Amino acid sequence: MRIYQFINQQRKRADGSMPIYVCVSRPPQRLYIHTGLFTKSVFSDGVFPRTESNHKAKTIKLNEYLDRIEQIAVENSLMPHDELRRLIMDKVFGKGAFDKSLSEYIMMYSESCKAKRTKEMYIATSRKVDAFDSHASLNITVTWLEDFVRFMRNDELMVNSMAIHLRNIRSVMNWAIKHDLTDNYPFRKFSIPSEETRKRNIPIEELRFIISQTELTSAQSKYRDLFVLMFYLIGINSVDLLNAAPEQLVNGRLEYRRSKTGRLYSVKVEPEAMEIINRYRGKKKLLSYGENSNYMYVMRRANKILKIFGKDITTYYARHTWATIAASLDIPMETIAAALGHSNGFKITSVYVDFNQRKVDEANRKVIDYVLGGDAEE
After folding, report:
1. Which alpha helices (H) appear in 182-258, and where do they start and end?
2. At 20, is the secondary structure helix, strand, or coil?
3. CB 128 within 8 A of CB 156
4. Among the three residues 30, 61, 93, which one is the final residue of a domain in this structure?
5. Gap between the Cα atoms of 42 and 51, Å rounded
6. pTM (2 d.p.)
7. What is the CATH number of the domain that holds 155?
8. Which domain holds residue 61?
9. What is the pLDDT at residue 291?
10. Exposure of 150 by Cβ count < 10 A (0-12 exposed, 13-18 middle, 19+ buried)?
11. pLDDT at 270
């Protein structure tokens, strides 16, 4: 048996700090215990470098953890792996380390979500789990998941809504495993139910009708133009467009980081899109729509008004419609995927290859020309 500190450089945080673990090596298994301590320097002698703030206190605490974990591990050398982890967590880090309910862990996880909407979804999942089984822990089973699905069906949730809650639980379980809170993973033998997402695209003639309408009220024109602008910008998400600052328009391109994924985007602003932007320019924001209201209010207003063109139409149709038209024009799927920010199954390639932005620009121009009266063959 060997006890030593381990600095996980692969989990470096945004500020450059790395978590420190204590490893209990009992061949053929290793047990990693997160100490709750972090460092910005790699060291192996149990002594934090002087460059670290509070280095003396951290050194004392780390060595205290090492000594106590070693004592417990030696005294319980024949204890099963998972039981030893729990014993160490209870004795070293305090009773109750494993007493939180599943819904509480989901709430904890939600605090790490950067996007407001994502955080809200995890909070909703926490409440749904609490309503079903307030005593559920990280030791949930396949049977528990199946019962949870039946509970949600009785609650008349749609299949894809249920899938969101289940995927959220799965993410929390993966997070808990990574942080040595559990070894349990019921999703190995459980398939998340799903159904094909309803296609939300507008037929080309209807889209042309929407764009060409002139007999509209001021409010109708305003929100119709917002929808069309989103289409011209390759289905940009509403939160990213409405929160964009004037300085994000650089050299004829809209530069933004998508709030949902954190990925950086650069969309060429075609003349038709620029005309709409100029018409509704804001002072603090690129567009005036959201300067006095949050984007959720603007989108609710937009979606309500868009119903004059079809009872189901929302701003999200802009994204689906752009993709559908692009596909009908035989634009390669990898170009469409790159335009929308999808990997399209090429997960490894998409990480290492800087996709040619020119192809995306040309694809958008081709789609706009076709919608505004061009021929698909041109």
Report:
1. 204-212, 218-232, 238-242
2. strand
3. no
4. 93
5. 12
6. 0.54
7. 1.10.150
8. 2-93
9. 80
10. exposed
11. 96
Number of domains in the chain: 3
Classify 111 as helix, strand or coil. coil
Sequence length of the chain is: 378
| CB-based contacts of 342, cutoff 8 Å, min separation 6 | 336
SS3 call for 312: coil
pLDDT at 236: 92
Closest to 235 (Cα-Cα) out of 324, 353, 297, 346: 324
Q: 189-198: long-range contacts (C-beta < 8 A, 24 or more apart)?
A: 189/142, 190/142, 190/145, 190/146, 192/163, 192/166, 192/167, 193/149, 193/159, 193/162, 193/163, 193/166, 194/159, 194/160, 194/163, 195/159, 195/160, 197/160
Distance CA 240, CA 290 (A): 11
Q: Are 216 and 297 in the same domain?
A: yes
How much is the pLDDT for 250? 93
The residues near 18 (Cβ < 8 Å, ≥ 6 apart) are: 7, 8, 9, 11, 12, 38, 39, 40, 42
Residue among 197, 204, 212 nearest 163 (CA):
197
Residues 266 and 315 in one domain: yes
Is the bond into 28 cis (omega within 30 degrees of 0)? yes
Cα gap 323→292, rounded to integer Å? 32
For residues 36 and 112, the answer to whether their CB atoms sit within 8 Å is no
Residue keyed to tokens 């004392």: 60
Report the distance separating Cα 325 and Cα 253, nearest Å: 22
Q: Dihedral sign, CA of 326, 353, 361, 270?
A: positive
- In this prediction, residue 342 carries a pLDDT of 63
Please tell me the predicted confidence (pLDDT) of residue 196: 54
Return the pLDDT at 353: 39
Are both 160 and 291 inside the same structural domain? no
- Spatial separation of the C-alpha atoms in residues 122 and 171, rounded to whole Å: 10
Residues of the chain with confidence (pLDDT) below 70: 11, 94-99, 195-199, 260, 342-355, 374-378
Each residue's pLDDT tens digit, 326-372: 999 999 988 898 888 765 444 433 433 345 788 999 999 999 999 99
Q: Which of 344, 345, 339, 337 is nearest to 364 (CA)?
A: 339
At residue 276, the pLDDT reads 96
